[in-house]
Sequence to fold (161 residues):
Amino acid sequence: MKLKPFACVRGLAIGLAWLAVSASGSASAAPAASKADGCLPQWQAGWVRLPPNAAMPMAAGFGRLHNPCKQALAVVAARSPAFAEVSLHQTTQVDGVSKMRQIERLPLAAGADAVLQPGGLHLMLMQPAQPLRQGASLPIAFVLEDGREVQGALKVSASKP
Fold:
């Protein structure tokens, strides 16, 4: 079999072009930058309100997410092995009526805090794996838009610690 130089060069050029397009992927530069600098938000003062009835299938979680990073980040999910389902919710007042809705994305501006507190942003913690006990510490993980996770804990308490 005789190789033609032009066909080899053309094949090489097509292969290199395909490789360059494949390597670029679809990820944006912002998540790559945040992953590269290693900066992560910090979960602080996390707690779960002890339900009045241990058989209740839900609880609410509170605390503070601090973003010390130089760029904005966003939380897109939360999870815990202590609960079957964890989601971010926000309570608002509409015409004097308290309404709660799930939020899909919690933006964290550079250097800012997101405060999760009763009557505002909070975690909805559904179907605890075990009954909640005063003083227990439960793991929580916040999933960032770039795929990284922020690990923390929620202390079970009847009132804000």
Residues 35-157 form a domain with the Immunoglobulin-like fold (CATH 2.60.40.1890).
